[in-house]
């Protein structure tokens, strides 16, 4: 399946950071460097001010059919073949999130798609194609009352923007397990795939524990702290080219990480112990401590938990076996963005 760009022969490009020669798959808009994690745009893959059109991918036979009002896609990638070393933590992030969703928020097991690079079923590997199909599965036929969750724990990157919709001239992206050849999935595509289809009454909560994830859903409202009052407020960040990045009436909320532009550490953990990501840990621990917290209270609690650090302390069969929290994504502080302006300090988080 192709999303942006045209099919043709494989292209060879030089990484814009380390200048390594990279091979991009036919039709790829960008390629991800295995050596330095930098994203590089493939020349001629698209023209400025393009409209991202996401074709409906073919159904994945490994996903099954679920019409539960509560559905989730959980993705954790270690990148075992990465030259700089695999990540420790993303797989446990997914397991702990699944436990949270099923035990505390009533998500049925058949309503949760898990993609990790430990899966033996090829349909459940977090390849670019499978992630695209999983995103389509998540929102397909969404209706009033649907509660959807999208989680990604892994590597994120940035790619030079082509269509003029980014204030910093960089697209954010998530990296599938095969992104070193197939390329990353850009924020434009993620927004088109799981944000814009949300109809009135449907809600999406996304948790992305990855480098450069702060605006990876391209949502128009950013949560900022007022310098005068210290209160959290929504501030609208319109796209420079006027592109619409909202939903079709529903609500999308992204909890992600600000990395301050620092380069992600190549290998954050060497000892073989059970670990999980710092951002994911802070999210789950904050909800376990205060299940009915407001969005603002949740964000504040997450920031406190990440700042204090310390060992992992989560209930459940997975959480109780995890001994260490690692900041594999280099996230400095949790942040939040939304498709709409709402009472961040008075509205309770409801997944």
From TrEMBL:
<comment type="similarity">
    <text>Belongs to the peptidase C14B family.</text>
</comment>
<dbReference type="InterPro" id="IPR050452">
    <property type="entry name" value="Metacaspase"/>
</dbReference>
<protein>
    <recommendedName>
        <fullName>Peptidase C14 caspase domain-containing protein</fullName>
    </recommendedName>
</protein>
<feature type="domain" description="Peptidase C14 caspase">
    <location>
        <begin position="69"/>
        <end position="337"/>
    </location>
</feature>
<dbReference type="Pfam" id="PF00656">
    <property type="entry name" value="Peptidase_C14"/>
</dbReference>
<dbReference type="GO" id="GO:0005737">
    <property type="term" value="C:cytoplasm"/>
</dbReference>
<dbReference type="GO" id="GO:0006508">
    <property type="term" value="P:proteolysis"/>
</dbReference>
<dbReference type="InterPro" id="IPR011600">
    <property type="entry name" value="Pept_C14_caspase"/>
</dbReference>
<dbReference type="GO" id="GO:0004197">
    <property type="term" value="F:cysteine-type endopeptidase activity"/>
</dbReference>
């Amino acid at each position: 399946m192709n999303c942006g760009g045209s099919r043709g022969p494989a292209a060879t490009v030089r990484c814009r950071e380390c200048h390594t020669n990279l091979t991009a798959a036919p039709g790829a808009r960008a390629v991800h460097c295995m050596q330095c994690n930098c994203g590089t745009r493939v020349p001629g893959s698209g023209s400025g001010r393009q409209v991202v059109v996401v074709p409906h991918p073919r159904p994945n036979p490994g996903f099954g059919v679920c019409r539960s009002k509560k559905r989730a896609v959980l993705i954790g990638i270690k990148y075992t073949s990465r030259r700089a070393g695999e990540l420790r933590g993303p797989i446990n992030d997914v397991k702990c999130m699944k436990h949270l969703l099923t035990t505390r928020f009533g998500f049925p097991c058949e309503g949760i798609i898990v993609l990790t690079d430990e899966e033996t079923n090829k349909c459940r590997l977090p390849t670019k194609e499978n992630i695209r199909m999983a995103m389509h599965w998540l929102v397909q036929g969404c209706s009033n009352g649907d509660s959807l969750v999208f989680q990604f724990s892994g590597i994120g990157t940035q790619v030079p923007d082509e269509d003029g919709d980014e204030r910093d001239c960089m697209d954010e992206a998530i990296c599938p397990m095969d992104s070193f050849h197939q390329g990353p999935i850009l924020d434009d595509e993620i927004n088109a795939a799981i944000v814009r289809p949300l109809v009135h009454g449907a809600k999406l909560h996304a948790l992305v524990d990855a480098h450069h994830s702060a605006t990876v859903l391209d949502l128009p409202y950013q949560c900022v702290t007022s310098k005068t009052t210290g209160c959290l407020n929504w501030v609208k960040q319109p796209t420079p080219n006027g592109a619409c990045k909202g939903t079709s009436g529903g609500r999308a909320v992204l909890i992600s990480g600000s990395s301050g532009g620092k380069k992600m550490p190549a290998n954050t953990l060497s000892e073989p112990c059970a670990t999980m990501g710092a951002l994911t840990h802070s999210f789950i621990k904050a909800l376990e401590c205060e299940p009915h917290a407001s969005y603002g209270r949740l964000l504040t609690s997450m920031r406190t938990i990440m700042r204090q650090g310390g060992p992992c302390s989560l209930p459940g069969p997975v959480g109780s076996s995890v001994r260490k929290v690692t900041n594999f994504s280099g996230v400095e502080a949790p942040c939040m963005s939304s498709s709409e302006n709402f009472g961040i300090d008075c509205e309770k988080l409801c997944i």
